[in-house]
C-alpha cells in the first residue's frame, strides 16, 4: 500500500520569525525555501510514498505537485481536514528538516506498520515526523510538547530517533547546531 506524505508549509507572512535577530526576512525566506525543497526532493526516493501533498495557504510558485489550501484554522484542524479528504495511510513531515534522508522516511513508515510511529525533535518535545495507518485514530496535537501529546494517545507507538528528524530549524540554537555540521554547509 502506498502512503501519502503531507508537508505543511507556511508560504505567506513572516517565515521563521524566531530567527529574525540572526537573519533578515529575505534570508529566512531563502532558508525556508531551501529546506522545503530538500524535504520534497527526498520523498520521491521513498518507494512507499505514492503521493506528496503540500498543505499551504497558497501553492508555492515552483511546486507542480498536489496542493491543499490551508484555511488558516491551525495546523491540527487543517491536518484533520486533509486526513478526511485524502484517506489512507499518511505521513506528516515538516518542511524544515534540512538533514532528512529517504532512509529516515522509510524507517518511520516501516515502524508504523502496526499503527503509529513518531519521530521527535532532538529535544524530544516536538514531533517532526508522524506516520499513521488509516485504521489508527490520532488527534493531531502539533504545537507545544507535541511529542508527549501524541505519544500519550498511543503509549505503544514506535518512536524513531534519527538524525534526519532530530534537527528542525526553529530557534537560533537550531541554526547554530545546523551550522556546526560541515556536510550541510557544502550543500
UniProtKB/TrEMBL annotation:
InterPro entries: CofC, Nucleotide-diphossugar_trans. Its EC number is 2.7.7.68. SUPFAM superfamilies: Nucleotide-diphospho-sugar transferases. Keywords: GTP-binding, Nucleotide-binding, Nucleotidyltransferase, Transferase. It is an enzyme of class 2 (transferase). Pfam families: CofC (PF01983). The keyword Nucleotide-binding applies. GO terms for molecular function: GTP binding; phospholactate guanylyltransferase activity. It comes from the Bacteria. NCBIfam families: F420_cofC (TIGR03552). PANTHER family: 2-PHOSPHO-L-LACTATE GUANYLYLTRANSFERASE. This is 2-phospho-L-lactate guanylyltransferase. It comes from Sphingosinicella soli.
